[in-house]
Design brief:
The protein is an all-alpha fold. The chain is built from eight helices and no strands.
Length: about 220
């Protein structure tokens, strides 16, 4: 990928438009965003892209009977990739908003109340974004599992890689949900409990799919 002078922070479709080397340079820099939340979303995007790639390789003449399913999987994976890219941008924005909320003045009761409210709103959004990434990870796994029995065997390992990427998206998102929920009042944090409970199940499915792909590879 060619170098670009355009920062992900300056583009309308940030993570979708920046050069990979520049993104990694900014990820490694001493700046608040991008960080682990954006990485989680990009794991999901990469998983979705791998599913779409395998599906596109499953459009040979011999795959004709599966073409309706394959076409649906391509469309679904492409859509998941775009949503995950958008969530990478949303995570960076949410993290920035949390930092800005904590910087608000608190010299008067009114200012303190406004600051507390702003922090709560920002933390909810900062937890909502990785929760949405978990949804995308779940979707990627479902698509990958559906594709495995009919996918082109020459690229079957990419289905396993998609499962691994989805797992990483879910577990990385878990960390970001947990740290934001820990600072929220229970009445707001409890809404994320169902998502957190799903993550173990997502990991188990991802591990099972990885094992299934290994079984195919090893014969």
């Amino acid at each position: 990928m060619s170098q670009s002078s355009t920062s992900y922070q300056d583009t309308a479709s940030s993570f979708g438009g920046v050069a990979l080397a520049q993104y990694l340079s900014e990820l490694a820099a001493k700046v608040p965003a991008p960080g682990g939340g954006a990485v989680a979303a990009l794991h999901a995007a990469q998983g979705a892209a791998l599913v779409a790639m395998v599906a596109r390789y499953t459009t040979r003449a011999k795959d004709a009977e599966h073409r309706p399913v394959v076409d649906r999987l391509i469309d679904a994976a492409d859509a998941a990739r775009e949503r995950a890219l958008a969530l990478a941008d949303a995570d960076a924005a949410a993290f920035t908003a949390v930092g800005n909320a904590y910087k608000l003045p608190k010299t008067t009761e009114a200012e303190t109340a406004a600051r507390t409210a702003a922090i709560t709103v920002a933390l909810i959004e900062a937890a909502r974004v990785p929760a949405a990434v978990v949804d995308e990870a779940d979707e990627v796994l479902s698509l990958a599992a559906e594709l495995l029995p009919i996918g082109n065997p020459n690229v079957v390992t990419d289905i396993g890689a998609a499962a691994d990427a989805a797992r990483a998206a879910a577990t990385s998102s878990q960390l970001n949900i947990e740290i934001n929920v820990a600072s929220l009042p229970a009445e707001h944090g409890d809404r994320f409990a169902p998502t957190l409970l799903r993550i173990d199940e997502i990991c188990a499915r991802a591990d099972a799919l990885h094992a299934d792909v290994l079984h195919v590879v090893r014969g």
